[in-house]
Structures
1.
Amino acid sequence: MRGATKNRLIRALPVVAATLLLVACATHAPQFEERGAALPESPGRDVGLHQQAEWRTAVDELLKTPPGGDAWQPFLLPGKRFAAFELAKQPAGAALSVIADGSVSILRKRFDKALPDVDRIAFSWKVDGLPGDARLGEAGKDDAPVRILLSFDGDRSKWTGRNHRMSEMSRLLTGEELPYATLMYVWANHDAPETVIVNARTDRIRKVVVESGAKQVGHWRDYQRNIRADFVRAFGEEPGPLRAVAIMTDTDNTQSSLRAWYGRMTLTAR
């Protein structure tokens, strides 16, 4: 790769990273996920715990999906701090906890054979604060204390040239193309519940606000969503097969500190 081209890609990394959250190429794991001990770690957070048998068993029991697919794995973005998802006991039962501090934490499961008929998802979460001055529709302020992400296949011939270029940059930087479409469920600082927010950098990521503001901070919140209905409302078309699901807490843009908990999640297919 020529020096000028490489430099352009490096400068574009923050843009690409924002759209990389759920890339789901079944045959290629991210290069920074394969390095084992070389994975970057945030102070006090042990990435290696995600490989422990006890942790894996507990997560599989907590985050239930249809059969098949890879194990739940951390997805690390180059240049971003990562805080690990730790097992935690809560009055309502088992949970995963993450302490964010200007970091991006993603835990992802990919399906080797895409799920053609995903139906509903039930999930719960709790936070002890919101990222300061975060705005989900603005580039550079797009932080959320908790997210559920769903990545879908689809007809890429419908993409704009911009989205094709971003997907190619993603492939060059990480070995993975962008997913056709990513639907997120988010807790927003300001936007009203049921608002659909289009990502500022690509229209292939759209967010459905399910919680907003600080009123419910410190309380467990439970949700049940019709995935197909939400996808159609967000994208104006039927969803394709599901390739990946993830949970995500990010405070890197606002450099905020907070703690988030993820309770039981159940993803079902028809």
2.
Amino acid sequence: MKPLAPAGGLLLALGTMISACDRPARPPETPPNVLLVVLDTLRADAVDPAPGSHTPVIAALAREGTLFMQGRSTASWTVPAHASIFTGLFPSRHNAHNEGRALSHEAQTLAELLSDTHDTAAFSENPHITRGKQFHQGFAVFKNSWPRHDPGNLRRQATDRMVQEWLTGRSQERPFFLFLNFMDPHLPYRPPPQFEKLLLGEGVSSAESDRLRSFEGADARRVIAGKVQLSEAELAVLRRLYRAEVASADARLGKVLETLRSQNLLDETLVVVLGDHGENIGDHGLMEHQFSLHETLLRVPILLRLPGSVPAGTRRHDPVQLVDVFPTVLEATDLPRERWPPHEGESLLGPEIDADRALVAEYRLPLDQERIFAREMADFDFSPLMQRLQSIQVGTKKLILAGGEPVELHDLAKDPAESENLLEQEPASVRLLLEELRRWQANRPTPLPTELGRREAETIEALRELGYVE
């Protein structure tokens, strides 16, 4: 088996090999380790699983495991998407979203369910995935390293150092459950120089790249509000910088995998790598990942690797979602079924899921965004953006609803960019999807209590730096 390592001299070398000769062997009946990695804001088309691509580690994972080609998020932004991963519930059931803000204390998370059998640790670079929002539940170690006046490299180095220290310093008497959130692809796009050089290409001046590296959340909001226009050339540069950030995240993932390989643990580890949501970079007239449930925000890569349980070199095209991670991890770790809480996912370790499965995503009222826009642009009419959204896809047909009313219908096979609205042309498809949505709503788990969360001062400051709160 070839090592998982970035290819080519232009990419970062992986970390130093660490001897595992003195590590005690775990008994064969011990459940596997679990490495769950969220590459924040990673849209599916930013990943290239081909050899020699800008994501060589993900490409190697795809060769050594299974890549799900039709993965979808349950939401368009961080909090509800992560809560779906941790609980196996959709946003309207876990209630961690724009209106609820925090994960319920009554949630039974993956970390809580595995804490009896696994060492649990989480390292998050996203200021939303914090103790203040109750995402620490079940983790014995929970650490944050968000940007905080840092262009990116110090934050990357701090997280990578903490992860390596935890992996190399822990006892191997028990398996581990390790969760990582890498923020590289999140705006602003400030990739390390070697990846910028690799992905930016010729014809872009240093002044232009420096200017667009400074493009932040406030700039994105001005674009959405029509106060600023970006040319196609500027959007093209932003997209290249974004892909350079993806390449950076890929290399950092490679360092973690190489550490596990050096400890002879990689083949005893269920590796789950995915995006929590995508990103609009001029798509649908939007920037970042709010106010939309289009495929640019919902389509995410999902990869699994576990020799003996996950087929190698497999591409699956069945409809899967982030809620499926929850039962997949529980099945892989042999947690007794009687301990599984109610959830809405299907294990990805079994046969392919029915092609007619409904894929649903939800977006609640953007209350924080309304306040930010009001502060920055008092004359902007935010009301068209202040709406709950929901989408349902069955097969290739996808319906988007705003305030409970159908507003867009798309055929993703013929129009993957969702540029043509078929709402008026295909009323029968609208009716069928609405009926499917009603069936989906029936007999679902009881919603968890809504929690406002503890808005810690340091969390608020971190969110302010990213432009999420006032």
